[in-house]
Input
Amino acid sequence: MGKQKSIRQEKTRKTIMSIVLAIICIIYMLPILVILINTFKDASSVKATIFALPNSETFVGFENYVTGMTAGSFPFWKAVLFNVIITVCSTFLILLFCSMAAWYVARVNSLFCKIFYYLCVFSMVVPFQMVQFTLSKTADTLKLNTPLTIPVIYLGFGAGLAIFMFVGFAKSIPIEIEEAASIDGCGPLRTYFMVVFPMLKPTLISVGILELMWVWNDYLLPSLVLDLGKYRNIPMHIMLTQKGSYGSVDLAAMMAMVFLSILPVIIFYLFCQKYIIKGVAAGAVKG
Amino acid sequence: MKKSSSSAAAPTPKKLKRHVKSGHSSITKRSMRKWSWLFIGPVFVSFIIGFIWPFGQGIYLSFNNFKIVSKPQFVGLSNYEKAFADETFMHAFWFTALFAVTSVILINVLAFAIAYALTQGVKGSNLFRTVFFMPNLIGGIVLGYLWSRIFDGILSVYQTSILAKAEYGFWGLIILLLWQQVGYMMIIYIAGLQAVPEDMLEAAKIDGATKTQTLFRVIIPNVMPSITICTFLTLTNSFKLYDQNLALTHGEPARQTEMLALNISNGFSAMNTRGMAQAKAVVFFLLVAVLGIAQLVATRKKEVQQ
Output
């Protein structure tokens, strides 16, 4: 009797919890929904209030998306393009070279390697403001100020976390496998690419996602290094257009731009959710 | 170390031991060293360009007056004196500290509560988890701009704006950061909660412990490592906050909502305060480093206990 009652109580409790969580979820999604709604309204009604739904008078279809993408002396689609180039190149460089260096550090383990490793760990706690001024000057001098060369800086500044995570994992790989490969006549290069690299896959995904999210959303580094007349990434473009000093667009087009900045991230998240959550959690626990 | 690995002729027992400890057979190691320029070279060079050199130069320049990097003028500690005498910097420090404490408490309590609710076998847990985590992936600038529109939309009803009062900016930033980071911390707490030994919970149940008792006596002590990690993560995140601050309030009104990172960044834009800004950056770095070391010590301790 009592047991049945407690089971029923448990059930109601869970249902109430579900409802409460669902309400919080809806509130959680509201900011993005508000932006989405406003991308279909005309500029004056966006300005009047952002909380009204579009009606037959204020509805403009996809016009805002078209203006948002193409308006201004520096159109938004170019910023998207540069963002993709910078992010893909940087992540690729970081994954390839940091995993190689980490394996070398884990296996050779000389004094030089140890110093290098601790410097990498050290670099993780240094806030960007510490190097912001000097780094932007160094980048200018070395001509690392274009979308195709800025990945070198990302490789240098992102090395800390990547090396730290890769070394941790590389140490756990049994050495016997590599020794077998070397007895079979593999040089270090072939051992690395045929044997070690495939085994690093889980860490490659975790580190890849962390670096991807970082570079994609990064504002300060590119805004200091890139010549904003020629190159911009998405955060730079949003910031500059918001200020309005470099060719402003109307509020409705701005809403479309903001939504277009969020959309790829959400799509990427929905498709790779499992890896993203795992990668982010791994980075948190280790960092 | 180098010697023992390359001259392996007639190894004494001591040498042999060290040899075994370092892992790789000397042949492989020697052949790896030949390729060191390829394995470690690219990262090493970019690490020097992207971190070591700017860092060293930054420390050096904090003792100098400079408008451009190539013409420094040694002034000793005067930049540091100026930095500590700068009221905007001290204000930014207290604003940041208050902000950090508030956000650490709120984020962790909410994240833990949601994680706890989601591990109770509620229907739709996976969907809820997906939704709560999503804002974390949106970058700070876009996030700041998005919320500035939302806040202004609400506040315009009362004929005011997020930039009108420092309190609005403060709570605006808190809400923004909650929205962004609760989901992230929730993930870490969920992992912690799932690792609580099942038999301990069973034992508590058999002993007749209530839900609250189980929560405070069994579950929370068991997720202490997660709590430590999340506390430090939120603390350092709040201290280093820049993008969101810039995009939401950019320090308005009258530099009242300026946090440390933004204060330093702004210092670099004026020619005659660059030396002071660099000194502030060094102070900021030391502050964050102390937090980082404290985290390391705290988590190490917890690991030993486990």
